[in-house]
Automatic annotation (TrEMBL):
<feature type="domain" description="Flagellin N-terminal">
    <location>
        <begin position="13"/>
        <end position="105"/>
    </location>
</feature>
<keyword id="KW-0975">Bacterial flagellum</keyword>
<dbReference type="InterPro" id="IPR001029">
    <property type="entry name" value="Flagellin_N"/>
</dbReference>
<dbReference type="Pfam" id="PF00669">
    <property type="entry name" value="Flagellin_N"/>
</dbReference>
<feature type="domain" description="Flagellin C-terminal">
    <location>
        <begin position="554"/>
        <end position="638"/>
    </location>
</feature>
<dbReference type="InterPro" id="IPR046358">
    <property type="entry name" value="Flagellin_C"/>
</dbReference>
<protein>
    <recommendedName>
        <fullName>Flagellin</fullName>
    </recommendedName>
</protein>
<comment type="similarity">
    <text>Belongs to the bacterial flagellin family.</text>
</comment>
<dbReference type="Pfam" id="PF00700">
    <property type="entry name" value="Flagellin_C"/>
</dbReference>
<comment type="function">
    <text>Flagellin is the subunit protein which polymerizes to form the filaments of bacterial flagella.</text>
</comment>
<keyword id="KW-0964">Secreted</keyword>
Length: 638
């Protein structure tokens, strides 16, 4: 070839054809691959950038499968929780059905102990819901009569009049100056014989508290005011202080034999200075009534216990009859009050308008009431020689108990239903004259003291059986079966080897660097089953009492709340995973689109380029042909 010499025109056209062929080859490659950058030689920056974006998109695409599996695992757990919820609702319905069921077995027995009961006959109940047997006596003693005392009432007797209050006086003998620290006047006072005298102190502060405005007591009125303040400061009640000239009078609020007032230990302290406290010996005690007031006493013996009873002015006041007993109604009230004050129990007082009757509350041969030793203390000359209105008294003893008799059906019903050991376990009722016993349990109740063949309660050694509640017993079995299903549902709620209800940990990875993850697990990693929910197998007798059923219903309700809370948590987790899956898909699309934008060719543009190159190739071929013809012109010489 080097020996061949081409003309410039041929060589130029030949090079043009070669360039056109190269460009056509490049264009054809772009049209065939759809890319304008097929290797690093085409555009290193775009090629490697596009490859990096595609690699990340590929990594994220592999995570989508993991996310899909995670969502299926959550769906499996949710399926289990949904079924467990329905099971718990069924358990709740079972318990409510048991709560409403009252189909307890019952048996009616006639009561016949014969004409002469021995007194040892019993009806014994055991089994059922009873922790221990309960015995019911079938006989009782006959009823006796109560003892009483009757006093004739005389309407024209002289009235019993209340006495006056006790009094004490103090005479002021001179002025008292409380002008030095420590100056004081003290005395003790005991009101109505309390036995605990109170010390009263009067000093300069007492005068200030009494608003006297001076440190010198120079009148009976000021002294009375100071003493009143001193009593108030010491908390003494039940006494009134008044003044008349230099005399200060203490008066008790109470009246009668108990009205007393004792003042003693009077001292005056002078702590120095030119003034002195007056001699306090001017206190003098006078008793207008005191312990020697009008009173009536008598003795009352109730069922062998004798007590002395006193009626005085205070008794009348406590009985709210004023100061005088005017009729038999007031007399009855006063007697009742006097008995109460004396601590006499077991006797009732009543009247029929003519007589006052004292009646023992007990019955039988030991029942008696006796009145005796009437006495009066007529200081005021107002009392008769006997208790006002009671001219005489006669006593009648009670009669003894009667022979043993069989308890009535109503009495047995009342006794059985009042027995705390039988409450909510056995119930009795009167079935048209027969004793009906109801077994409020799922276990059989044994009744001893009956003849089963005749259906008679006779206190014998015979026994009968009252069946337990079969409906509640069957419902207990149903409850246990449903509880077992909870554990099976928990065991079967797995996907791809992961069971969230068994406490397994599911870790979801959301990016290619594993820096964005989500850990999904049950609360505290616990297994969600019957034990975790606080539900245990129950015996039939767990449904005996309505209160126990209510407690079980409450436990199932709490379990439902736990399941629903866990389902809500898993639902929130599923929502987050689904949201992240959508995000990842969109991110993959963004990465792939970005990568394609860097390397993909514009097919329309490349097709136009190909058409232009083909035209250019044809023109170059024609030009090469023309150039060759010019070189062939020399042949015409031959």
């Amino acid at each position: 070839m080097s020996d061949i010499t081409l003309s410039a025109g041929v060589r130029q056209n030949l090079l043009s054809l070669q360039n056109t062929a190269d460009m056509m080859a490049t264009t054809q490659s772009r049209l065939a691959t759809g890319k304008k950058v097929n290797s690093a030689l085409d555009n290193p920056t775009n090629f490697f950038t596009s490859q990096s974006l595609n690699n990340r998109a590929s990594d994220l695409s592999s995570l989508l499968d993991s996310m899909s599996n995670g969502m299926k695992t959550l769906e499996a757990a949710d399926n289990g929780l949904t079924s467990m919820t329905k099971t718990l609702e069924s358990m709740q319905s079972t318990l409510r059905q048991a709560r409403q069921d009252k189909s307890f077995e019952k048996t009616s027995y006639s009561v016949d102990l014969g004409d002469t009961p021995a007194g040892t006959e019993q009806l014994s109940l055991s089994g059922g819901a009873l922790a221990a047997g309960v015995d019911i006596d079938l006989t009782t003693a006959g009823t006796g009569t109560a003892g009483s005392a009757t006093a004739a009432y005389t309407a024209d007797a002289t009235a019993f009049t209340a006495s006056t209050a006790a009094e004490a006086t103090f005479t002021r003998t001179g002025d008292m100056a409380f002008d030095d620290a420590g100056d004081k006047l003290e005395f003790t006072i005991d009101v109505d014989g309390s036995g605990s005298p109170t010390t009263i102190t009067i000093d300069a502060q007492t005068l200030t508290d009494a608003s006297l405005g001076t440190t010198i007591i120079d009148s009976g009125a000021d002294l009375a005011a100071a003493i009143t303040q001193g009593l108030a400061d010491a908390g003494v009640t039940g006494v009134t202080v008044s003044a008349s000239g230099d005399d200060v009078t203490f008066t008790t609020d109470s009246t009668g034999a108990d009205a007393q007032l004792d003042i003693s230990a009077v001292t005056a302290t002078n702590n120095g200075g030119s003034d002195t406290l007056a001699d306090a010996t001017g206190f003098s005690l006078t008793t207008a009534n005191g312990a020697d007031g009008d009173a009536v006493t008598f003795d009352i013996d109730v069922d062998g216990t004798s007590t002395s009873v006193t009626i005085d002015a205070q008794t009348l006041a406590d009985a709210s009859v004023g100061t005088t007993i005017d009729d038999i109604t007031e007399l009855t009230s006063v007697l009742d009050q006097a008995l109460t004050d004396a601590g006499v129990t077991g006797v009732s007082v009543a009247n029929d308008g003519t007589n006052v009757t004292f009646t023992s509350d007990s019955q039988g041969e030991d029942s008696s009431v006796t009145l005796s030793n009437f006495d009066t203390d007529a200081d005021s000359g107002n009392n008769t020689n006997s208790l006002y209105g009671l001219a005489s008294a006669t006593s009648t003893a009670g009669t003894g108990e009667g022979a043993l008799v069989a308890k009535t059906v109503d009495a047995l019903v009342a006794e059985i239903n009042a027995n705390s050991d039988l409450e909510g376990k056995v119930r009795a009722s009167n079935d048209n004259g027969s004793l009906r016993i109801e077994n409020q349990s799922t276990n059989d109740l044994t009744v001893t003291g009956v003849t089963a063949s005749t259906g008679t309660v006779d206190g014998s050694t015979g026994t009968d059986t009252i069946d337990g509640n079969k409906v509640r017993s069957d419902l207990a079995t149903q409850f246990n079966d449903l509880r077992d299903q909870l554990d099976k549902l928990s065991d079967d709620s797995s996907f791809n080897g992961i069971n969230l209800l068994q406490g397994d940990l599911l870790t979801m990875t959301f990016n290619e660097t594993s820096t964005s993850t989500l850990d999904i697990q049950s609360e505290d990693g616990e297994t969600i089953n019957s034990s975790y929910l606080g539900l245990s197998t129950i015996d039939a007798d767990a449904l005996d009492a309505d209160t126990d059923i209510d407690s079980l219903i409450s436990t199932v309700k709490s379990a439902l709340g736990t399941i629903r809370s866990q389902a809500s948590t898993f639902g929130s987790n599923l929502s987050m995973v689904e949201n992240r899956e959508d995000f990842t898909k969109n991110m993959i699309n963004t990465l792939e689109t970005g990568a394609d934008d860097l390397v993909l060719a514009d097919t329309n543009e490349e097709a136009a380029n190909m058409l232009a190159l083909q035209t250019r190739q044809q023109l170059s071929s024609t030009a090469l042909s023309l150039a060759s013809q010019a070189d062939q012109a020399v042949l015409r010489l031959f």
